[in-house]
């Protein structure tokens, strides 16, 4: 039995990636590299859907290009430097939705 998607946690695409990690048999679960590839592909797809302007720019420093995704919410919003700074303390949270997260390149 797979856990239901909690309201407001993430979009359907990110939830599908998360749900694939809960497969009963270990061989049916994706590898970390597989998850990373899916998230990068999702970031690329979602990035194309964002409006022109500041799309692709770090939401914290507003200077550098986005290189990191917040997991599990899926927001592509931070550059490498800001991701490192936000992850250095305990309890990192997404700067867009404030959900607890970690950041993946």
TrEMBL record:
Record carries keyword Zinc-finger: yes
Lineage, top-rank taxon, reads Eukaryota
The record's InterPro entries line, in alphabetical order, gives: RING-FYVE_E3_ubiquitin-ligase (IPR051728), Ser-Thr/Tyr_kinase_cat_dom (IPR001245), Znf_RING (IPR001841), Znf_RING/FYVE/PHD (IPR013083)
Molecular function terms, GO-annotated? protein kinase activity; zinc ion binding
Question: In the UniProt record, does the keyword Lyase occur?
Answer: no
**Residue intervals of the RING-type domain:** 58-98
The record's keywords, sorted A to Z, are: Metal-binding, Zinc, Zinc-finger
Q: What is this protein called?
A: RING-type domain-containing protein
Which organism was this protein described from?
Hemiselmis tepida
């Amino acid at each position: 039995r797979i856990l239901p998607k909690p309201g407001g946690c993430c979009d359907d695409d990110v939830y599908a990636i998360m749900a694939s990690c809960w497969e009963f048999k270990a061989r049916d679960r994706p590898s970390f590299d597989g998850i990373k590839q899916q998230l990068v592909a999702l970031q690329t797809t979602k990035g194309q859907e964002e409006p022109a302007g500041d799309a692709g720019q770090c939401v914290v420093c507003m200077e550098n290009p986005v290189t990191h995704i917040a997991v599990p919410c899926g927001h592509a919003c931070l550059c490498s430097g800001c991701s490192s700074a936000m992850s250095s303390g305990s309890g990192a949270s997404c700067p867009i939705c404030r959900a607890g997260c970690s950041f993946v390149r």
